[in-house]
């Protein structure tokens, strides 16, 4: 099976069409989310359990840290981290997704521009969302380097040809002591679709990040039909 990569426009269309894939492929799962899903449906919107479990790798008790979320969309992780007292910075190409997040949670916000990015900054909480191409986002544009990065499904969905660029972009946002928490899903032999999300193996992690970061798997747990893996990466000193 030959993998297919999505363009940025196709990702934006995916958000606006509520998950309708541009390749018209279906991701089949006996647990797949339906409108009448039970609360324990793994596909239903929820704060990532692994993020909550490993929160101390992002921020300490009573601490306020700068935490960046890659390809964040309208993730509930944004809201949870903000409510935990953190300074939250998110990025996604889709203005539709970011505006939707602000409106869904009834957050008043200001809109400004930073270079090519449209910036949505909440008035009542320390949350800023940057709409634009992640590879063009620099620390200068988003207020400086961050203390931690939470990546759930983002690297796993990035175009295969862009993986090295993705790693360099993440590294540029990190301080020497920053933690980068990467969540990837092992689809085992159940992946039948050609586009994202892709299977991420240890070999891919090493090939992509090994020159600039150390890494180790720190956790794993069943997720729907698959297995979620949590990898901790840190810049090489």
From TrEMBL:
<feature type="region of interest" description="Disordered">
    <location>
        <begin position="17"/>
        <end position="43"/>
    </location>
</feature>
<dbReference type="Pfam" id="PF05724">
    <property type="entry name" value="TPMT"/>
</dbReference>
<dbReference type="GO" id="GO:0008119">
    <property type="term" value="F:thiopurine S-methyltransferase activity"/>
</dbReference>
<keyword id="KW-0949">S-adenosyl-L-methionine</keyword>
<dbReference type="InterPro" id="IPR029063">
    <property type="entry name" value="SAM-dependent_MTases_sf"/>
</dbReference>
<feature type="compositionally biased region" description="Basic and acidic residues">
    <location>
        <begin position="17"/>
        <end position="36"/>
    </location>
</feature>
<dbReference type="InterPro" id="IPR008854">
    <property type="entry name" value="TPMT"/>
</dbReference>
<dbReference type="GO" id="GO:0032259">
    <property type="term" value="P:methylation"/>
</dbReference>
<keyword id="KW-0489">Methyltransferase</keyword>
<keyword id="KW-0808">Transferase</keyword>
<protein>
    <submittedName>
        <fullName>Thiopurine S-methyltransferase-like</fullName>
    </submittedName>
</protein>
